[in-house]
Amino acid sequence: MQANSSIEMPELRVLLAGPRGFCAGVDRAIRVVEESLRRYGAPVYVRHEIVHNRTVVEQLEAQGAIFVESLDEVPPDAPVVFSAHGVPKSVPTEAQRRNLTYLDATCPLVSKVHREAERHFGAGRHILMIGHAGHPEVEGTMGQLPPGAMTLVQDAKEARVVAPPDPGTRLAFITQTTLSVDDTAEIVAILRERFPEIVGPAREDICYATTNRQAAVKAVAPDSDLVIVIGSPNSSNSQRLREVAERAGARAAVLLPRVEDLDWAKLAGVRTLGVTAGASAPEWLVEQLIARLRDRFVLSVEERRVTQENLVFKLPAPLA
């Protein structure tokens, strides 16, 4: 939309949360697919969305990636990439059985949780997995061990009633990497009160990117009439950012998968707009939103950055 020069545009203050957008694990996963396409040629199959962002998926599809939900959909001799969320152990086992060339794009911080689960299991502990049912990261983590080795705990209510397999069972807990920091702290406190001997991770399972993006949203939300979180509905970290924004004092917060989906009526009366992006959303979507806003408002843009990020993960050995 082009602004009519005869009409005075309203002013809008934009507070950009920083950090925002791609994390190191997402960046690595996308590079795995792109390098696989260069190395092997199209098509390259990807089990599940490589990251939870439809725009990213469509860009990779345009380059020759084919996204599937099961290895049954991958033809013989075709390369296949496992998504950043991780997969159950049965998946690479099946790929090996079929002699498929596979590349594992699991985020190293998710792989760290997998190794923690294995250590607890080896030490004879039953594991309480804090996470969301149906999320591929949770399915992948719980699939590292035999059925029954873990019990899923989704919220504080479940934490108050969850019971170990038998009263004498030694316990440990691990968490999904993309949870609300505050919600998880509440759940962990309940579990520690109920089970004083429960063993937790030496370092926080919630990843640095999730923690940093939630802290950044908390820095802009109290001054924002509305916070826009650029991210997909199936992105756990993006959904948590929207919830954190509302709890931190924003009058409202919305999830925006694509800039063209923005309901401009939601900006009526908004003087200060907070903007962030989930860890699987590219920065150019933020830039696109700012450009669209400039068509309708006289903008002042301020970034509130709570920390710098410079972590980079290496590609898997076959692509390094």
Detailed description of the structure:
The chain has helices at 24-40, 54-63, 90-97, 108-122, 136-142, 156-161, 181-194, 208-220, 236-247, 283-294, and strands spanning 11-18, 44-47, 65-68, 80-82, 102-104, 125-130, 150-153, 170-175, 226-230, 253-256, 272-277, 298-305. The protein is α/β, with parallel strands linked by helices and 320 residues long. It folds into three domains: 11-22 and 208-305, 4-hydroxy-3-methylbut-2-enyl diphosphate reductase, catalytic domain (Cobalt-precorrin-4 Transmethylase, domain 1, 3-Layer(aba) Sandwich), CATH 3.40.1010.20; 24-104, Rossmann fold (3-Layer(aba) Sandwich), CATH 3.40.50.11270; 108-206, 4-hydroxy-3-methylbut-2-enyl diphosphate reductase, catalytic domain (Cobalt-precorrin-4 Transmethylase, domain 1, 3-Layer(aba) Sandwich), CATH 3.40.1010. The strands form three sheets. It has a five-stranded parallel sheet with strand order 10-9-11-1-12, sandwiched between helices. Helix 8 (208-220) packs parallel to helix 9. The mean pLDDT is 95.
